[in-house]
Design goal:
Strand order of the largest sheet: 6-7-8-3-9-10-12-11
Distance between the termini: 33 Å
Strand content: 15-25%
Helix content: 25-40%
Shape: globular
Structural class: alpha/beta
Radius of gyration: 20 Å
Number of strands: 12
Length: 320
């Protein structure tokens, strides 16, 4: 049994333009010690999938159907009083943009101590000592002094380390990292990713890595799910998917990488734009951008075609 399993998860948002299908029949599994990457353009549904797992959907967000199973326990029907203790204790999340995720008027120490006081029931002195140790574990320099600082007094990389310390405060089994290196320079990005990977190995965490950077996926992920317009269009072991992509969208993403462009030639791009999620076509949502589209692609949604365990693609080219 997987530690966490999503099956046909569908999340809708009520908007002024109508109902938006942010996540559409998504299925994935997380296992201890392994990294699963969720890849796709902005707006493809990656972060909303993470928020559904955490039980932190925005106002107007609803889990329309499907299931989220934590070791066989259904989370979608749990009342908030039972869901809240799972956040931080068993499932934790590193959010995008630490400067906006951290409270600017609270000291770093107070924010790292909060889950320890709430979930672990430590007294303030114990929580302070534990917070200093956590900051030290994630590489924050001089944690005894930094614990009294405010977020604006730290660099971007140090703020991200604080976010990781907060996520790990209660020793969760599952860690969701949502674009954990956004707005960081390349050197700091590598340090943060290596830190997260080292923590995964040391603690046996199940890691869900959300990113649009295929270079990160190639280096860090065991399994990859490619999302487009709220759906997973291709899944597979990282090396197999990146070296032998099947879905035209995955092929387009890989072709658009700068290192795959010919010297002196313009960068390759995927023509067109993703569809509006309030007015999805009846067929494949990628059909109007796809170089291999057939008439059936515009008329019917393709089913998942399974090539081998863990290797699937949702495309009519493999079904006809």
């Amino acid at each position: 049994m997987s530690l966490l399993a999503l099956h046909d998860l569908t999340v809708t948002l009520q908007t002024p333009s109508g109902i938006l299908y942010a996540v559409n029949k998504v299925a994935l599994q997380l296992e201890p010690g392994r990294t699963v990457a969720l890849v796709g353009e902005s707006g493809s549904g990656k972060s909303m999938t993470a928020r559904a797992i955490m039980g932190l959907l925005p106002p107007g967000g609803t889990i329309e159907s499907g299931s989220i199973m934590l070791e066989g326990r259904e989370l979608t029907t749990l009342p908030e009083t039972e869901r809240r203790p799972l956040r931080g204790n068993r499932i934790a999340m590193i959010f995008q943009e630490p400067m906006t995720s951290l409270n600017p008027v609270l000291r770093i120490g107070d924010q790292v101590m909060e889950p320890l006081l709430l979930h672990r029931r430590l007294d303030k002195q114990q929580a302070r000592l534990q917070a200093i140790d956590l900051l030290r574990q994630v590489g924050v320099a001089s944690p005894e002094q930094r614990i009294s600082d405010y977020p604006h007094q730290l660099s971007g990389g140090q703020r991200q380390r604080v976010m990781i310390a907060m996520a790990l405060a209660c020793d969760p089994e599952i860690l969701i990292a949502d674009e954990p290196t956004t707005a960081l320079d390349v050197t700091i990005q590598a340090q943060i990713l290596e830190l997260i990977d080292q923590l995964r190995r040391d603690k046996g965490l199940a890691l869900l890595l959300i990113t649009h950077d295929l270079g990160i996926v190639a280096q860090r992920a065991d399994q990859v799910h490619v999302m487009y317009a709220g759906r997973i269009v291709e899944s597979g072991p990282a090396q197999a998917l990146l070296t032998r992509p099947l879905h035209p969208y995955t092929k387009g993403l890989l072709a658009s990488l700068p290192e795959n462009s010919l010297p002196g030639q313009p960068l390759v791009t995927i023509p067109g734009h993703p569809p509006r999620l309030t007015g999805l076509p009846t067929g494949c949502p990628f059909s109007d951008r796809c170089p291999d589209a057939k008439s059936i692609c515009e008329e019917q949604m393709p089913a998942d075609y399974r090539l081998s365990p863990g290797r699937t693609v949702s495309c009519w080219n493999y079904l006809l």
